[in-house]
UniProtKB/TrEMBL annotation:
Protein name: sn-glycerol-3-phosphate import ATP-binding protein UgpC
Keywords from the named record: ATP-binding, Cell membrane, Hydrolase, Membrane, Nucleotide-binding, Transport
Entry's EC annotation: 3.6.3.20
Pfam families: ABC_tran, TOBE_2
Statement: the UniProt record of this protein carries the keyword Transport: yes
Family named by the database record: Belongs to the ABC transporter superfamily.
Enzyme class: hydrolase
Domain ABC transporter: residue ranges: 9-241
Organism: Tritonibacter horizontis
Classification via PANTHER family: ABC TRANSPORTER ATP-BINDING PROTEIN (PTHR43875:SF14), MALTODEXTRIN IMPORT ATP-BINDING PROTEIN MSMX (PTHR43875)
Keyword ATP-binding: yes
GO cellular component: ATP-binding cassette (ABC) transporter complex, substrate-binding subunit-containing
UniProt xrefs under InterPro entries: AAA+_ATPase, ABC_transporter-like_ATP-bd, ABC_transpr_FbpC, ABC_transpr_MalK/UgpC-like, Mo/tungstate-bd_C_term_dom, NA-bd_OB-fold, P-loop_NTPase, Transp-assoc_OB_typ2
């Protein structure tokens, strides 16, 4: 296991990049501590796979360094980095038994059979596959095949990091929660450094202690799942995380009216004053959970009411902008009804050019 440090890392697929837009990865500086559970989260094309390939050694970055426990491994090939990787599609040998699949990484490195048996049995017990050790892998279900693929990554005790690249993409939805739970349990038991790459917020937030959110090659926020939900540092994080995501509304703000922004001229109290006078595009961010249907406030018209089980989502047109409100109880409101919206002050944030610009009072 290892602490992983990315220092001033940038990468372009062009031979002579001239501007930021030529880089698939903008400058990244971050540390992943030994034994931590981390996720790289973002939409397709945001740079997650590029970063994963750089860490694994499949790509050499255009600029910067990768350090494992302080040792520069930037130009070391994958086989010298002691990395285990689990891919979207299970990498196992169908003609081998489950036991032999789990044993293969150890035997390939010349471990004695006593060590092989000890590790295989330990991992098989963790994965709950002990009863199928003598079965051929070809006959396994997709979720069990992916379990064995995970086991092949975890069976070695000398790995610096185990990396998971969208490992649940091909798994049936009703089985995903089982594997997510199992993976979290495995991390807690083996204490290996793990990096989980996904576009699925549920997978990232249920697995990781720290989530790195990426957009267009840039890290826009690093934080715990709670931090990402409570205080999105960027409007992209607010919109991408949560269901429904944060309401983002254009506003004006001059910083002189008691921490008030204005939406189409209507005053909206903010959580606190802006850190400095805004010079770019200003927007209000408010999560639907903190929007209340009230007798006073911003005038709105109901567009849609969706009962999603434990709560109801009411979609409104508010001064020409779409706003979602999440309410715990059912509602008698219907499409076309007039109402008013109230925003909870301590959860109403100002963003300038996409970045959080206010602090709580």
């Amino acid at each position: 296991m290892a602490k992983i440090t990315l220092s001033k890392l940038r990468h372009s697929y062009m031979s002579n990049p001239k501007s930021d837009s030529d880089y698939a990865l903008k400058e990244i500086d971050l540390d992943w501590n030994d034994g931590g559970a981390y996720a790289l989260l973002g939409p397709s094309g945001c740079g997650k796979s590029t970063l994963l390939n750089i860490i694994s050694g499949l790509l050499v970055p255009s600029e910067g360094q990768i350090l494992f426990d302080g040792k520069d491994v930037t130009r070391l090939p994958p086989d010298q980095r002691n990395i285990a990787q689990v891919f979207q599609f299970p990498v196992i040998y169908d003609t081998m038994t489950v036991y032999d699949n789990l044993a293969f990484p150890l035997r390939n490195r010349g471990r004695d059979e006593a060590t092989v048996e000890r590790r295989v049995m330990a991992i098989a017990e963790m994965l709950e596959v002990t009863g199928m050790l003598n079965q051929k892998a070809a006959g396994l279900s997709p979720d069990n095949k992916q379990k064995i693929s995970m086991g092949r990554g975890l069976v070695r005790e000398d790995v610096n990091v185990v990396m998971f690249d969208e490992p649940l993409t091909v798994i049936d939805p009703h089985l995903k929660w089982k594997l997510r739970s199992k993976l979290k349990e495995l991390h807690q038991r083996v204490k290996a450094t793990m990096i989980y790459v996904t576009h699925d917020q549920t997978e990232a937030l249920t697995f990781a202690d720290q989530v790195v959110v990426m957009q267009q090659g840039e890290v826009v926020q690093i934080g715990t799942p709670v931090e990402l939900f409570d205080r999105p540092a960027h409007t992209f994080v607010g919109h991408f995380i949560g269901s429904p995501g944060m309401n983002i509304l254009p506003c004006t703000y001059d910083g002189t009216a008691d921490d008030m922004a204005r939406i189409e001229g209507q005053p909206v109290p903010l959580e606190g004053p802006a850190r400095s006078a805004p010079t770019g595009k200003t927007e209000i961010g408010i999560r639907p959970e903190f929007v209340t249907l009230a007798g006073s406030g911003l005038p709105a018209t109901v567009i849609k009411v969706s009962d999603v089980g434990r709560h109801t989502v009411v979609e409104c047109d508010c001064l020409g902008h779409k706003v979602n409100a999440v309410i715990d109880e059912g509602t008698t409101l219907q499409k076309g009804d007039a109402t008013h919206l109230s925003f909870r002050k301590d959860q109403t944030r100002l963003y300038v050019d996409g970045w959080l610009a206010t602090d709580p009072e």
